[in-house]
Amino acid sequence: MKWQGGGWDLEVLVSGYPGKVYPHGSLGWSTVALLRGHGRIIVLDAGGYGMRKVLPAMLKERGIAVSDVTDLLLSHAHHDHSVNWPLFRHARIWIGRKELAWALGLPWGETSVPEHAIEALSRWPTLRLMEDGDTVFPGITAHLAPGHTPGHLIFIIEGDGQDCVLLQDAVKNRVELTTRDTDMTYDPAISRATIEMVWGICRERPGVLLVPGHDLPLVVENGVPRAIGQHRAEIRGWFGASLTEITRFDITPADDGGTSP
């Protein structure tokens, strides 16, 4: 999915997936987006370890070398969004000041924060810290949206007729947006308040494009979130006598409510 506005070209490279597996826990398949404009090439969140070859290949398909990326924008410190920051170690790496302090203070081995990666990031020379309300880039502001984590940030992009909000895991999917209930939150009441804030943004900015962390991009029409695009997700397994015998499991719903971009 692509969007343009305010001198920015936005492309969702990978749409996050709303699911878990048993007994392996959270899939961690999160949204990764690319922003180009105003002389910058920005990656929003960096995916999990499984993206370490996929993401550079996707950038290369678009004529972008990893070293061309000028900025990595991290919404929060969970592993599936932050652990690959070393891919972009030459770039400016942005994370919320409150989020980083929270992540550094956690006991090791008990949460979804990759402790070693965040500790190293805290000492990295190109690290940049964001505050609530900061204008991080031209027409792009950071806003505190806690609940999933205490210092989670969303990013509002001023468009030309249609604005865009990079929600990531502040609102992970359309079910959370609709029901106001959340999975994986340190405080459900705070998460609900953040979701109400997002609904306020939708009322103030009719037609705004929402980019959640574990779902397709969304627009709200007559109070109902509508997904843009279709999920693409498949698991490939080796259960035969050779590596050439591949079993494919399509894990997309027959009708997920999405539409063409």
How are the secondary structure elements laid out?
Elements: E1 2-5, E2 8-14, E3 20-21, E4 25-26, E5 32-37, E6 40-44, H1 54-61, E7 71-73, H2 79-82, E8 92-96, H3 97-104, H4 115-122, E9 127-130, E10 135-137, E11 140-144, E12 153-157, E13 164-168, H5 174-179, H6 188-204, E14 209-212, E15 218-221, E16 224-227, E17 234-237, E18 247-250
Parallel strand pairs: 6-7, 7-8, 8-9, 13-14
Antiparallel strand pairs: 1-2, 2-5, 3-4, 5-6, 10-11, 11-12, 12-13, 15-16, 17-18
Question: Can you tell me about this structure?
Answer:
The radius of gyration is 18 Å and the shape is globular. 40% of the residues are buried. It has a single domain, classed as 4-Layer Sandwich (Metallo-beta-lactamase, Chain A). With 261 residues, the protein is an alpha+beta fold. Strand 12 and strand 13 form a beta hairpin. The longest helix has 17 residues. The strands form five sheets. Strands 1-2-5-6-7-8-9 form a seven-stranded mixed β-sheet. A five-stranded mixed β-sheet has the order 10-11-12-13-14, with no helix packed on it.
